[in-house]
Amino acid sequence: MSGRAQASGSRRLGWLWLPLLLCFSFLYVPIVALVVMSFNSGKSALNFSGLSLRWYPELFRDGDLGEALLNSLLVAVGCTLVSTVLGTMLAVGLVRHTRSTALDSLVMAPAILPDLMMAIGLLSFFAAVGVSLGLATVALAHAAFGTAFVVAVVRARLVQLDRSLEEASQDLGAGWFTTFTRITLPSIAPAVAAGSLLAFTLSIDEFVIAFFTNGPTSPTLPIEIYSRVRFGVTPEINALATILLAVSAIAVVVVAVAVGRTEDGDD
Amino acid sequence: MTEPLVSIKGVGASYGSVRALDDVYLDIGDQEFFALLGPSGCGKTTLLRSLAGFETPTEGSVLLAGEDLLAIPAHQRPVNMMFQSYALFPHQTVAGNVGYGPARAGESKQEIARKVAEVLAIVGLTGLERRRPSQLSGGQRQRVALARAIVNRPRLLLLDEPLSALDRNVRSQMQLELKRLQHEVGIAFVMVTHDQEEALSMSDRVAVMDGGRIQQVAAPEELYARPANRFVAEFIGQSNVFEGVAAAGGLSAGGRLLPGSGSGRYLVVRPEQVRLTPAGVVSGTVLETQFAGGMSTIVVAPEEVATASGQPVLVRQPGPTGVERGAAVSLTWDAETAVLVP
User: Fold this and answer.
1) Using an 8 Å Cβ cutoff, are B225 and B336 in contact?
2) Which CATH number fits domain B6-225: 3.40.50.300, 3.30.365.10, 3.20.20.70, 3.20.20.100?
3) Does the pLDDT value for residue B325 go beyond 60?
4) Is the ipTM beyond the 0.90 threshold?
């Protein structure tokens, strides 16, 4: 069945398979190169000198890298929690309680502003209020733009949600809180999940803002990698990247399947 | 009418420069089937949503069984609504939807299950408890929406265009069903509709609205036979409206007396009251004839007298038309079947 669909797809594609192949090569050759280099037996991430798995056990013995990964995960989880809660509440407020388009665009500003400006701004802010820099400030800084992305995703779903569902809930005796938890939230849950996943992935590999708002003692993964690259990168980094790639690919598939399943159930 | 269930007193609502409701007075009786009828934008939906608590009138008061309804928030009103889109919760089953109200009232699981079973039996959906709204037909969804709205036994049930989403043949069946149900549960129904046939065939009384104002409140027969003004006359059914000056025994227009009763500058006569006669009060030429089984319609261009809208005069009679296009005819009607309105 799927084989036949593919066959008819390529028939309609005609000669266009060539540019399609080029586009996909452009997108995926770097990733393939990254993965291949992780199996390099030599010490360089630039010259392939033979197949080996030596960098994977090496990776797990590298305590600093492990700590940096843990730091990044902590930051990403913190950012995701703050962004999801704030972003969802903000989206509900914007869609249900105001018709202001100015507020709408203001919310998106942190997502559109250049990272460098955000970073400098946040650094000045943290300095001004006298907060000592560390993982918490990175998480808050990431949440500042993560929230904007959650708002964008959740708002798109809310706009489509039939307003009378919430009115019906009120009509049947539910106050605003019960209406939100029993009717609104289940209806927008896939969007909330997608938004929080987006905030997580944006946070975990963010470099510029983290670089400015972090303290000196607890580097996040991108910062740790950056500091090593200056002394020459080893295939150990490629091995780490390959593992992260595999984990995120699995996560994306799991979420896509889960979201698809709840949406099937809804309709 | 004894003490009314709902008493709407001087209700008005303005949104910016839009006057959605203007000085509305209305009494609705216990167990009455009441319809709000009018063209779109006439304020009928605003009035209904004000009763539900989703709109707040800017002036006036509403009493429900003597209590100030407008002071009570929507989720505490003893009023339930059936939404035009049905607004069934898509992520819940039929039982979940219908049981939502009793669950919010804090009733026990057994009590909720008993009420759900009872009300599903009333609307004829026993056995579908575990289905999702997406697995139901349009008619079944409508019944679930109805069941959900009556399960809490409200004092007043509001229906927003309840039949507009249904196919034509399901609709006429549901009209009868709603009427039966209203007698069975003994709840006052207030229905908003733009479909006059629906309003006339189902309701005990109808309020015709236009421009945020109540134009007339009357039983369907009276609304048709004795419209209060030109708007109602033209909105309800088909009518021939002549403009002129009230005179003894009718309306003086174009130098002749058109028979009628009442007072006002318009005379309304229904097509089925007009007859062809050798020497009538209005003469004219037949423009067109339509034969539709038991009834036929004759379209006549009047001479000397014009209708208020400039439209030809309609004559409806049983049996075949009996005249040809282009024939000169003369029309008459009885004074008591024509009414003068302002």
Assistant:
1) no
2) 3.40.50.300
3) yes
4) no
